[in-house]
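Hello,

Our lab assistant flagged a job as stuck in the queue for most of the afternoon. It eventually completed. Since we weren't sure the result was trustworthy after the delay, we are filing this so someone can double-check. Below is the sequence as submitted and the structure that was eventually returned. Let us know if re-running is recommended.
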Amino acid sequence: MIRQSLEIKLGQKMVLTPQLQQSIHLLMLSRLDLVDEMIEEVQVNPLLEMLEPGETATPDGEEFSSDPGSDSESFAQEEMDSWDVDAASTRGDPEDQPSDPLSTWEHPMLEGLDAADSFRDEQLNREEPSSDYSYEKFLAGGTSLEEHVNWQLSFSDLNPRERDLACFLSGNLNEDGYLQISKEEIPAELLEGVSFEHVLGVLQECDPPGVGARNLRECLLIQARQLDLVDSLVWRILSDCMDEFLASQFKSIMKTLHATESELESAMAIIRRFETKPGRPFDQDAPTAIAPDVLFRDAGGGEIEVSLIEAGIPRVRIHPTYRDLLKNMRKDDVSRSYFEDKLKNAQWFLKSIEQRKKTILRVAEAILRYQRDFFFQGPSALKPLVLKTIAQDLGLHESTISRVTNKKYADTPFGLTELKFFFSGSIASSNGDDHSSVSVREKLREIVRKESPEHPFSDQEIMEQLSKEGIVIARRTVAKYRMELDIPPVNKRRKATH
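-- returned structure --
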């Protein structure tokens, strides 16, 4: 009986490999950040190289295949074929994975290699787009962290009072994504009849991972929990040995947690990928250049074509010289293990890039199926759509859809928009149809645009106008939408006409 229990426990044990952690990281990146990541990966992995314009991927056309003559274990291609970073985190053999992934954590004891600025600049200046696609028109302020979190909260199951508290908390996140207000500092009326712990828990489930934490330890634990690592060695290090961890007292950690050196190294490889400043990508001190990932083009005849925009993305391959070197290397060569590990890293990185592209395209195609009217009629034709619908359609995890739609942009017949723009909650109508909250905002904007300059509509009158179109919302909702659209109140609009 004891043996059976042990086998069941081992069979259910979570294995989150550094490669899968890297895949999650790549999926979350914006297009421009991805370019930086690719350049940096080429620098730290000698088996990767940038392709010059006109070069083919590999001499033999087998971009991702390892040397068939090698006695190293074959690369698990099936790992990526049905790739979903959340579901796949339960798969993988830790013995097949390297223990030194590129670190993104800034703590001194975990600093990784920095890419040389001169190398990055040289590559970016040299890269030739694969088409004449122009990005000059794309410069924007970007989405704030508060806006991004509130967008996700709009899809939550929180009731109105809970959502008010959640939005108050999101407004008190600092630039690093940490909650900078204590429960005692929150107005009593916001806490009345509401569980602070429940609302904070919902906020902390939002993207980016770690947002809403009150300290570094909680930030890292949130990320571990989102990866189903509760009760793992990663969790125990962060929850029980945080001080020793920050002080690099690894022998003390191994003794306290009864862990071996290899087990600790595997756990550290995962923790290195955690973000200590979740709000970092939302820094809005300067305008953000935006490069679209997807093009929705009116092909005529009532058809819309959707395609990935490849221009500006570096092309990377496994260096043929090192491939040949590994092929001819003696089995007992001391360098062989190093090159085999680098080859596995390179293969996984390239496959992760390709799968990222496929996943973005699949989500874009699904958006087209559900929001087809938008591409002919504009924002007023948007339909209610939630992340769960697309996730179920594609057989992916809901958080994967959230990662795909965040910081990924589409060039549409109605301008540049973030993919998450196509998702919004529903507002019931008197005729039984549901309206997208985005389309309701557009109808409100249209009502104000057509109003008499001498007699502009009050919020009550706008509410009545919307009701005539079958859209039933409260006056305070009208006021909220009006302010979100930067439309002044009625008295200011009237004054502006004189």
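-- support follow-up --
The delay was a queue issue, not a problem with the job. The result is valid. Residues 145-279 form one domain. Residues 1-14, 59-83, 87-141 have pLDDT under 50 and may be disordered.
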